[in-house]
Specification:
Layout: E1 6-9, E2 15-18, E3 23-27, E4 31-38, E5 42-44, E6 50-57, E7 71-72, E8 77-78, E9 82-85, E10 92-93, E11 96-98, E12 102-105, E13 136-139, E14 143-146, E15 152-154, E16 160-161, E17 164-168, E18 174-176, E19 185-189, E20 195-196, E21 205-206, E22 208-215, E23 229-238, H1 246-253, E24 257-262, E25 272-275, H2 289-332, H3 336-342, E26 350-351, E27 372-373
Parallel strand pairs: 1-3, 2-4, 3-5, 4-6, 6-8, 6-9, 7-10, 8-11, 9-12, 11-13, 12-14, 13-16, 14-17, 15-18, 17-19, 19-22, 20-22, 21-23, 22-23, 23-24, 26-27
Antiparallel strand pairs: 24-25
Region (Disordered): 355-385
Transmembrane segments: 289-314
Biased composition (Basic and acidic residues): 363-372
């Protein structure tokens, strides 16, 4: 380890860029807008928890002696992009989440002493090298690994990538994503000397999968044993002629794969290009955002229609009940004479005409006799002869 690194104290530093060959330890710095380090001998940030952008570029490992990789033991959040270029071993971080894109590239180990990390003198790697693990849990954007050689990319804690995982132009390298369950797009192509798919034993959900290269046959073609649904296309372009497509064909027939193209063998068939309707899934990405929006709008319109229909029916029923009550009251109301007699008032005089019998009296009403007016002299009535 380099002697006499520069010690920096304070918590008001906005960004930190450390040039090649320098040594520094930052104390009490918890947040930075930018952290850039280039081939530094010592770069330690014991209290840093969050940065907006992280760029590490240069040679950060000397496997023959000290490990010069940056030390950020409490870094758990990169809000934007994280870029790692050239030669280095995995940085020491907390349970890191990347809010933007994660890029690992151009860090081929052509000059590394691979024998010192469990490799052989010819530059090939042994399984011991996989102990250099990246502690990254989540990538919100794209994850790109490109143009590396003789390295092992091991991310045992990475659970999901929200955009696309691309591994291309990687020579004689290994990959391990033992805990990854969800990747919208998985693209692995043009990786000579590297076995694919790279231990995706826990992958459950994807939209598109493209594998081009030497396919690992240790599982006899069962490369995605935990698969639950690939809505779109699965394309397998195996460089090894003995790759068996039968397991993928069966997964497609079971409705786990929407469309399948595989150039390996399948009980004598060299190519399979068929499509089936995917089975329903409880995974959140099984419906697109537009589909969910359409469903929400439809439910909203239906709810409004039901509310309007209920309100109109209730109003119409109230109006009919009111009209019925008015009609019933009108039919049951007594005549004005009955009301007056019932209230103890004398009825107004009536004019009655008689044809002769003056003993006629109107009917009694409630025990009272109605007064009668008549002509003083009865009119004579002629009787027929």
């Amino acid at each position: 380890m380099a002697d006499n690194p520069m010690h920096v104290f304070g918590d008001s530093i906005g960004s930190w860029v450390q040039n090649e060959g320098t040594s520094a330890i930052l104390h009490n710095v918890t947040q930075l807008t930018e952290l850039g380090i280039q081939s530094s001998l010592v770069a330690q940030f014991p209290h840093l928890t969050e940065v907006d952008e992280l760029i590490l570029e240069g040679s950060f490992a000397n496997f023959g002696g000290d490990d010069f990789s940056p030390v950020l033991p409490n870094l758990v959040q990169v809000n934007g992009d994280a870029i790692f270029k050239r030669k280095f071993s995995p940085i020491k971080v907390g349970d890191l989440e990347v809010g933007g894109n994660l890029t690992i590239q151009d860090n081929g180990a052509g000059n590394w002493d691979t024998a010192s990390v469990g490799g052989s003198s010819d530059g090939s790697l042994s399984e011991d090298y996989s102990t250099y693990e990246w502690n990254i849990h989540h990538v919100e954007g794209h994850f790109i690994v490109s143009n590396v050689s003789n390295v092992a990319i091991s991310m045992p804690n990475l659970t999901n990538v929200n955009a696309q995982l691309t591994i291309e132009n990687c020579v004689n390298s290994t990959f391990s994503f033992a805990s990854t369950t969800s990747i919208p797009v998985l693209l692995m192509q043009n990786n000579p000397g590297s076995l694919l798919p790279g231990n995706f034993r826990t992958l459950q959900f994807a939209d598109t999968v493209v594998l081009n290269g030497n396919i690992d046959m240790s599982s006899n073609g069962n490369i995605f044993p935990s698969l639950r649904l690939v809505q779109g296309q699965v394309t397998i372009e195996a460089w090894n002629a003995d790759f068996n497509c039968s397991k993928l064909v069966q997964q497609q027939r079971d409705g786990l794969i929407g469309h399948l193209t595989c150039n390996g063998t399948d009980s004598g068939n060299s190519t399979t290009t068929t499509s089936v309707q995917p089975v329903p899934s409880d995974q959140g990405s099984s419906l697109s955002l537009g589909a969910w929006v359409g469903i929400g709008v439809g439910i909203g319109v239906l709810a409004l229609a039901l509310i309007f229909s209920f309100s109109w029916t209730l109003s119409h029923r109230r109006r009919r009940n009111m009209e019925r009550k008015i009609n019933m009251n009108a039919e049951a109301a007594p005549s004005p004479d009955v009301v007056m007699a019932h209230n103890g008032h004398d009825l107004p005089p009536r004019i009655l005409e008689f044809e002769g019998d003056t003993s006629f009296r109107p009917a009694e009403m409630d025990g009272r006799r109605s007064p009668v007016e008549m002509d003083a002299t009865p009119r004579p009535v002629e009787k027929p002869a």
